[in-house]
Design brief:
By secondary structure, the chain is mostly helical. It contains 5 helices and 5 strands. A 3-stranded antiparallel β-sheet has the order 3-4-5. The protein has a two-stranded parallel sheet with strand order 1-2. Helix 1 crosses helix 2 and helix 3 runs parallel beside helix 5. The chain is globular and about 55 Å long.
Length: 172
């Protein structure tokens, strides 16, 4: 199962000419309350398989010349990608309802937020501290990593492009 999943992920990445594969950082997960016996064992085995798949993909991706990045997992499926706030999950956990009333697939919502966190980090990391603080003052949501969504990335991009236009016009 691990090898099959890793090969499928890598073949998808190659087909779409991906440079970086982004995963959630799954540090030691805590056991939810009420897990006993076989249910506890199933949870542990499921967690170990996730880590094994990520490690196998990382090994194969490095061989192919691709990079791997991991982003903070907290809140990726808890917040709506459109920036409307926390979502309500159905009992089956497959759908989520945004505060605006829109229903969306929970995993797709989380994947938008995972990708956005990767790009937010890539944008902010090379900036000087003064420039980063100036941008974060205009987009305060970018300060809290667990609340970063696709809407945060869009706002951040607008602020950066507006400040780049201002600096170019001020020099001219």
């Amino acid at each position: 199962m691990v090898n099959d999943a890793a090969h499928q992920i890598l073949s998808f990445a190659k087909a779409h000419q991906v440079d970086t594969i982004v995963f959630e950082y799954l540090r030691q997960m805590t056991m939810p309350k009420g897990f006993r016996g076989a249910k506890r064992l199933r949870f542990k085995l499921h967690y170990w398989r996730k880590i094994a798949i990520q490690n196998k993909v990382e090994e194969m991706a490095h061989f192919e010349g691709m990079r791997i990045s991991r982003v903070l997992a907290n809140g990726t499926s808890m917040y709506a990608y459109d920036g409307s706030g926390k979502v309500e999950r159905t009992p089956r956990k497959d759908l989520c309802t945004f505060q605006s009333g829109k229903e969306y697939h929970a995993d797709l919502n989380a994947s938008y937020n995972i990708g956005a966190r990767f790009f937010i980090r890539a944008i902010l990391k090379p900036l000087s501290e003064m420039r980063e603080l100036g941008i974060q003052a205009k987009v305060p949501v970018s300060l809290v990593r667990t609340e970063q969504t696709l809407a945060t990335l869009i706002s951040l991009n607008q602020v950066i492009s507006a400040s780049a236009d201002f600096s170019v016009s001020a020099v001219s």
